[in-house]
Specification:
Number of domains: 2
Radius of gyration: 22 Å
Number of strands: 0
Low-confidence stretches: 1-19, 24-32
Structural class: mainly alpha
Oligomer: single chain
Shape: globular
Number of helices: 6
Distance between the termini: 60 Å
Helix content: over 70%
Order of helices and strands: HHHHHH
Largest sheet: none
């Protein structure tokens, strides 16, 4: 019987628990979570391959809309990564935020074009600020995980005192 790494890790952590529906649910949830990671990685690989080999040209008139749509998607992805690391990720919130961010950015850009104002710049600035904030939180999480939370806080405090 071939064992998956995720199943092995789960069985070693649940060894002392009584066998019941709770432990079985945890095994099923972990298997589903591991499978969704693989689905995501396969989807990214297929998307990259299709993007490389599909001759898709976007007209210059739609370049702004494409740019702000991609910025909205990236903002949602970094927000989802941050939410997952902080332990409050929800797939429904992620999907709805992704679609809302993308369409809201495109609508604001469209209204700016109709009014003759470059509102897409405001959208790009707003999404950039949010993405950099999310990246900072993700970076802090990994630094505190690998270096130790107290050491990271001490370095940040020392840096703040120098400024």
């Amino acid at each position: 019987m071939r064992r998956n790494f995720l199943n092995f890790k789960l069985s070693s952590t649940l060894r002392d628990e009584p066998s019941g529906s709770d432990s079985n649910e945890k095994i099923v949830n972990l298997r589903l979570k591991g499978a969704s990671v693989w689905y995501g990685l396969i989807g990214i690989a297929v998307g990259i391959i299709l993007g490389i080999y599909t001759p898709l040209n976007i007209p210059i008139e739609y370049a702004r809309y494409t740019a702000v749509g991609i910025m909205g998607i990236l903002d949602s992805v970094f927000g989802a990564i941050r939410g997952d690391l902080q332990g409050h990720y929800n797939a429904t919130v992620f999907i709805s935020g992704l679609i809302t961010n993308m369409f809201l950015a495109i609508i604001v850009t469209f209204l700016g074009d109709r009014l003759g104002i470059d509102l897409y710049l405001a959208v790009i600035v707003a999404f950039t600020i949010r993405m950099l904030n999310n990246i900072g939180i993700i970076r802090y999480f990994f630094l505190s995980r690998f270096m130790g939370k107290k050491e990271v806080e001490a370095r940040l405090k020392a840096k703040a005192e120098l400024e």
